[in-house]
């Protein structure tokens, strides 16, 4: 990994950790199988921290630009899949 996760300096340490955990799981979804339920759980926590859709899009775009991984498509697949595990 040669990139940084997008974070907001106004977030608390716990919020930064939770957002990084979400982006890390998206990364893992592209490299290995991940739990669909865990993706949805971490996304729900992400939305508590970033309730604004425009801010979410900004962070997702920044992450995709540096990593090449789509958080949007990962969450979409988790929502639509009936399987216990997903892989991008």
From TrEMBL:
Gene3D superfamilies: BH2638-like. SUPFAM superfamilies: BH2638-like. InterPro entries: BH2638-like_sf, UPF0223. Belongs to the UPF0223 family. This is UPF0223 protein J2Z64_002158. It comes from Oceanobacillus polygoni. The lineage of its organism: Bacteria, Bacillati, Bacillota, Bacilli, Bacillales.
């Amino acid at each position: 990994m040669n990139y940084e996760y997008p974070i907001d300096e106004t977030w608390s340490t716990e919020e930064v950790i939770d957002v990084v955990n979400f982006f890390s799981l998206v990364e893992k979804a592209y490299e290995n199988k991940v739990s669909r339920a865990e993706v949805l759980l971490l996304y729900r926590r992400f939305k508590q921290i970033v309730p604004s859709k425009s801010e979410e899009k900004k962070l997702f775009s920044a992450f995709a630009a540096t990593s090449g991984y789509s958080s949007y498509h990962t969450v979409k697949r988790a929502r639509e899949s009936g399987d216990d595990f997903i892989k991008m």
